[in-house]
Design brief:
With 305 residues, the protein is an alpha/beta fold. The protein contains twelve helices and eight strands. The chain has one domain: Alpha/Beta hydrolase fold, catalytic domain (Rossmann fold), CATH 3.40.50.1820.
Amino acid sequence: MIWIIAVISALLLFIVLGLIWGFKTAFVRNNVRLIDLDSKSLSQYKEQFEIGFKYIDSYKSKRVFTKSYDNLKLAGKYFDNDSVSTIILFHGYRSDGRFDFACAVKYYIDMGLNVLIVDQRASGESEGKLITYGIKERHDVVKWSEFVNRHYAPKNIFLSGISMGASTVMMASNLNLPNNVRGIIADCGFTSASDIIKKVARVSFKINATLILPLLNIGCKIYGKFSLDEIDTITALSQSNIPIFFIHGKCDGFVPCEMTEQSYQAAVAEKYICLVDDADHGVSFLKDTQNIQKQIAEFVTRYSS
């Protein structure tokens, strides 16, 4: 009997420690970027990134701050281009805007847009202890849009995100956004927190997360005051009238291209999609630059007042 109790206790301890590890790995801030320039998917674009970094660092910008609905200090960097249109950029999971949009900021400024790169909550200079896969971050989209209107009053606002940032802006699409939010650009976003956690657990850790997600969700509710089932892109886009342009690489090994196709099918607003051959996660803009730039320019022009 003692041995049985010991085995059961050890098993329960193993499960608890595993859940703590899983929660910390998935949600807790650590300020370590998930992907760097030496990774297989990005190494060939290293020179373009370095040029982009130099441009961003040399262009006159202003550090700006706002408050989230739950009283976190949110940080961003504003590039004033004396334009009537502003694009707000939301970076991906465990990354930052300078990195994720290194090769896009100059393009947007050359297009004649003001640019705001935000640090998502629990990233960069923004406060927060937990990453919530767009669930709480979507409310920050509203706050940043209101901030831009309050301080700079542009005629047009466009929202753009990559990876988790794309999911963030899609999940925000059915919220009470300002009327001058004209369009959304969503590059390689996942459909929901649960979907991407299950996919990463299966591929990277060889774990079936279906059974442990409810337990992780309890931790989310207790420590983060959010639920993994609170929102997904399918629901949000089915309730949004904001035009949206989807981008995704067909060979994305992190967020399956099928997730963007599902979001595209769910969207009821005017919608456009560009799927790029041979493009891995987050590199469609680099893989098919001229085509992507042309389609973004057409989208922004079409919906600017």
